[in-house]
Amino acid sequence: MSAPVRLAAYYFFYFAYAGAFVPYFSLYLAARGYGAAQIALVLAMPQVARIFAPALWGWLADAWEWRGGGARFGGTRYAIVVFSAFAVFSGFASLYAVESYAGVAAVMFALSVLAAGALPLVEAITLSVLGGRTGHYGPIRLWGSIGFILGVLGVGAWLDRHPPATILDLVVALAAVAWVASFVVPHAGAPRPAQAGPGLAAVLWRGDVLAFFGACVCMTMAHGAMYAFYSIYLDEAGYPKTLIGALWTLGVVAEVIAFLWLPRLLRRFSLRALLLASFACAAVRFPATGWGVDSLAVLAAAQLLHAATFGIYHAACIAAVHRLFPGRIEARGQALYSSLAYGLGGAAGVLLAGWTWETLGAVPSFALSGLFGALGGALVAWKVRV
Predict the structure, then answer these.
(1) N or C: which end of the chain has fewer CB within 10 A?
(2) What range defines the domain where residue 314 resides?
(3) CATH code assigned at 368
(4) What is the model's pTM?
(5) Closest to 225 in 3D by CA, of 29, 33, 362, 26
């Protein structure tokens, strides 16, 4: 198989597992009797780990790879990806033996630390394989979206006939498949460039880079209530789980279309313009979700905006990080993006959503998400030029 096909296969199976975990694990936790704040804390564990763990894995990958290490394992990046996938599978499997709430939170944190290196390193490998053709990232990455769709729909249909306690069985099974798929990731690391390029600190402390990462934190915080409580919100509003899965799927279908259009969008618009449009959509999408729960049409329209708030946004961010962190700091740049955006922003967003959900309610929680989208757009407009 060619390298792009192998990467597409990994994305497909990794996000099929994510399609079981992201929309439905909150229902599993609720079935165990946990309240909103407890659910938010457990779901924040992966984001808390991503604040620091991807940067550590990225540093290890760069430091060892650029010194010629890891050759007998097929490359340091490859070895970390395979190890991380195994950590996800074994971590979730261990939950069968854990009964206490503190134990579940601890296991989620531990497996998240061990697993945090995989996706940013696969992103770095993908961009290394593509060279300067960042517009071709979307057609590879869209296979992850297709895997997510199938995972969401399959688990949603399953849950209409089986209790939420079985969600753990599905997550474990799909995590095992994703681990097997990790073995097909291309082995080769990035080739050593002719010039070493700038150091990490010199790039990181530039004003435009700080504003960019600040905007990324805002976007992930904007998604906090969505990822933690959207399924619970719709379940309590009386929607069947198959329809909940269909709404999640609608958003990812829109994301797939965005990835297909990505080469054309990147030729026509700057990364800055795409980011501004994505943040504007976030400012609209999340308040509409909160206020429109009684209208299936409003919920569907809000989900279609996922094409911008994740699909176009994420692809533009990956391309921007590739430009901002060249050469020997490439893997650390992608790891920092994961740490700051999905780690710091994700943890803060989920924990804040847990507090506002219990104290203010669902509609104010989603309204606050929209404000974070607007703030992120303001940061991009102020300083970011990519």
Answers:
(1) N
(2) 3-383
(3) 1.20.1250.20
(4) 0.76
(5) 362
